[in-house]
Design a protein that fits this description.
binds magnesium ion, 413 residues, 10% strand, four-stranded parallel β-sheet, binds pyruvic acid, binds NADPH dihydro-nicotinamide-adenine-dinucleotide phosphate, 10 strands
Length: 413
Amino acid sequence: MSDFREQALHYHAHPVPGKISVELTKPAETVNDLALAYSPGVAEPVREIAADPANAYKYTGKGNMVAVISNGTAILGLGNLGPLASKPVMEGKALLFKRFAGLDSIDIEVKHRTTEDFINTVANIADTFGGINLEDIKAPECFEIEKALIERCSIPVFHDDQHGTAIVTAAGMLNALEVQGKDIEDAIIVCLGAGAAAVACMELLIKCGALREHIYMLDRKGVIHTRRDDLNEYKLLFANNTDKRTLQDVIADADVFVGVSGPNLLTAEDLKLMADKPVVFACSNPDPEIAPAVAHGARNDLIMATGRSDYPNQVNNVLCFPFIFRGALDVRATSINDEMKIAAVHAIRSIAKEPVPNEVLKASGVDSLEFGAEYIIPKPMDPRLLPRIARAVAEAAVESGVAQIDMPENYMR
Ligand SMILES: NC(=O)C1=CN([C@@H]2O[C@H](COP(=O)(O)OP(=O)(O)OC[C@H]3O[C@@H](n4cnc5c(N)ncnc54)[C@H](OP(=O)(O)O)[C@@H]3O)[C@@H](O)[C@H]2O)C=CC1
Ligand SMILES: CC(=O)C(=O)O
Ligand SMILES: [Mg+2]
């Protein structure tokens, strides 16, 4: 067993199995405590909530709780390994919600036969939570699932692999292009992968200025083009009217590569075909489309990012989901809309351009970090992420009319 594999398994197994547990927020020591917590005292909030469901936010943990829900059909880049195998990742997301945003989070892995079954299961338990973070559900089912749940639930439902990834990718991409001296409107973009993350990343880049006709998206069969007759409605949105058919055809002279597909699919030779000063986001987890050492060995004018913590420029949805839910829940937003997503993009972007606190340098094991090729995006442990993203998102929710309450006074200044 390799050292790292052993360490990872030991971490998950000891001192107790798993990564999360439940803790009490009220005393439960005396007869009087129990009389308040349980029978007869608990009947009082029950009656209040029955009279007005909004009282659930006042008397229960609903408003600070996010469910992380998966069916295990696209676990990271490991594929469809089923609901139970996805549990370590979902516990991991719950850990990150708590660690970075103070949100209580529970993982729920759903075994189901039909997409409808999954939707019904989630819709039927949704009121328990303040928000629902869908995770690692493969395309195209993820699109139908998210749409149906948004329609049926009165709390925010957010497919992290789509929108969390897209927000962080857009923030990192706008900064990387700025460093490379390129405009997003002019950028030729290759997106390897045509699933949940790919479709959402490209749609958000378009909202940030990229041109749809400049985007070449690829799936396992190659370039998605207008003469293919095997495209689902989501891939069809990216069908390019082109004679190019392979990754090598489209990557020649491209400015940007976004990989949200699988491991080791981009070679050093492919990379050498790109335009001067390219941006390469190889975001597949745990193994990127190209290893940073291979990429940097191939050329020295690129900006490189991966989804991992152990290289510079971690483009990973961890920079978004804890904070966007914090902001959304704190104003009881009924959904997470485009205005809130764009607010998150700009909040993340701006932090990378400011001096980095010492505690972040220390946690990153470096002496300095300065906006540039090796630092286009903040580190996940940056304490500014929480107040800045949450505030921007909450304000956007209030301004766009999806908040059910006003901004809390002196909110995270
Ligand atoms: N860094 C980050 O924050 C994130 C990274 N990701 C990574 O993105 C990847 C995809 O995740 P997600 O979108 O949720 O999964 P999906 O299952 O929804 O999509 C996977 C896509 O990748 C394509 N693909 C797989 N293998 C190949 C290949 N050999 N050549 C070309 N295309 C291929 C599939 O093609 P086809 O349609 O033909 O099956 C499909 O379009 C994973 O590796 C995941 O770790 C995802 C979310 C966040
Ligand atoms: C980071 C993440 O959500 C993924 O790779 O699926
Ligand atoms: Mg995921």
